Amino acid sequence: MFICALSVYFYSYSQGPPSLTSDQNTVIYSNAEEVIGVKHGNQNRYWVKLDEISPHLKKAFLITEDRSFYEHFGFDMSRIAAAMIKNIVNMDKVEGASTITQQYARNLFLNHEKTWTRKINEAIYALRLEMFYEKDEIFEGYLNTIYFGHGNYGVEAASRYYFDKHANELTIAEAALLAGIPKGPSYYSPINHPEHATERQQMILKLMANQGEITETELKHAKQEKLAIAQEEERQGKQIAPYFQDVVIGEATTILDITKEELITGGYKIHTTLDTKKQKALEKTAENQMDDSSKIQVAAVSIEPKTGSVQALLGGRDYEESPYNRVVQAKRMAGSTFKPFLYYAALERGYTPATPLESAPTQFELADGRVYAPSNYNGYYANDEITLAQAIALSDNIYAVKTNLFYEPETLVETAKEFGIKSELPAVPSLALGTASVSVLEMAKGYSVLANGGKDVIPHTITKITNAEGEVLYERKKTEKEQVLDPKQSFILTHLMTGMFDENLNDYSRVTGAAIQDMLSRPYAGKTGSTNTDSWMIGFSPQVTTAVWTGYDKNEKITKTEEQAYARNIWAHYMEAVHKELPVKKFKPPEGVVAVSMDSHTGKIAHSGCEDQRVTYFVEGTEPRESCTLHVPKNLFDPNQPKDEKEDGSSLWDWVGF
Known about the structure:
Elements: H1 2-14, E1 26-29, E2 35-39, E3 44-45, H2 55-65, H3 77-90, H4 100-109, H5 116-132, H6 135-145, E4 152-153, H7 155-163, H8 172-180, H9 194-210, H10 216-224, H11 232-235, H12 242-256, H13 260-264, E5 269-272, H14 276-289, E6 297-304, E7 309-314, E8 332-333, H15 339-348, E9 356-359, E10 364-365, E11 371-372, E12 384-387, H16 388-394, H17 397-407, H18 409-418, E13 437-438, H19 440-451, E14 462-466, E15 472-475, H20 487-497, E16 525-530, E17 534-540, E18 545-551, H21 561-564, H22 566-579, E19 593-599, E20 613-619, H23 643-648, H24 650-656
Parallel strand pairs: 1-5, 3-4
Antiparallel strand pairs: 1-2, 5-14, 6-7, 6-18, 8-13, 9-12, 10-11, 14-15, 16-17, 17-18, 19-20
């Protein structure tokens, strides 16, 4: 027996220390270090240090499971002998003698089948644990791996699940209840069988008092304490921004080059870009603006244009009903929100905000002999020339198609790629009207490039990832962004896009942002877009870019007027909400850009007789040189005008162009 025992000892020693790793929960944090979600496989686990566990809970486990834990070498020979005698007397296995070390070995490496093979392996693993690890390390591991029922492993997971608190916050009564569960996780579950759980809790409290671990007064109070078991929604955990979290998981698996299962069970700490205030504002706004009875869906994303940080994301109306993420997974026709890419290409190639084209029903004969006849919204046309400034603000389709054909559709395809659009784009005339399918995230990225003055934007959700031990595995570096667009033309286009809210640009119809301009309190640039099945609003300030899409998943037509307004209403209310605490910032013109007071209809220098005039920006040297002759100042020859004002001549000089 001595030789056998010595052989087992040396064999165990030769195997070295067993690994103590086990699956752990992965935790996701907001940009303010708030926990927004916890990911795990079938087992819910958190690892906490021994000194982060309630002393009452540690005492309760030692008393009930292994009172001589700190004295034995993995096996309690007196308990083994007593258990053998009791089992022989009863002719059945009525009592076990497993120590905490043996239980920990079983939890880590083995199953719970009652065979001699499993018992021998358990003994060997227990010996190895005792040889190579301190008692506190073993006790810490045991408390973090023991099963508490309902998929929860470890005292921290159990504390959160049953009491919605951390393991270091437990009262004596709560600690005694938890310590009783592992003996029979189903039978002693305070959720399934509260009477069984209470009975065992009372027994453990008596043991603690008998062993002098608690006083009689503490025993009395603990017995009388009414425990508050966490409600269902608390047990499920507080999951903030579930669509955003799915994007985080996808991005993290790519960064670490591991599977989703490895990620969610690896105990990682993922620090993200989510701004919970913006996220809540986005969710609340969408909920408030959309009728509960409507089945229409929504997708929205908010990005910080200077960094590319995704600060809020909504992939649908209800994650539980549909986890399909319409921000990144769906591709829909962009409609007129695609036009800014076209007009950037035009500005780079000679257009200015004053460039005139006729807005009238037009049939375009294509190279293959086919005829393409686009139309404006509701069939309205100027039947006259309009400027680029008006074409953007009114979203004139004829102007857009003429421009696309003039520079050839391939130019628009290449320009859209410069903005970061990666979806396949057909080089056809209708591409100017957004007939290609793109994602909401792509469009938000493209507009963010404009918002930051033409620098590249890489949308991202993760800033740092650490492992369970706190070692940094990934940290996003701050790098100088590449200038991908001309800063002067980027600013000019941005300013043109503020025109959708300026009714000085009204012509045959109102500007597309007229319905929401009264909601806005600061400068924004943006563009609406619509097809029969899609409604878009994308816009930005220097601080925030937000893209909103609404539509039906199965491409049903949007026929209700109120549903056609959802996207722009959500955008306006949300942008105002998130800017309340931000300073007012205007789009600043770069060097080489000049401002001109331009008549919105003629594209020429405005004078006091031009009612619809607007400060408009041009690359220096391309600004209009002629003054508007279409509008004569109302009081130029008014005999009732005071003589000194008449003789001042300022209006006349403006009119003739000096």
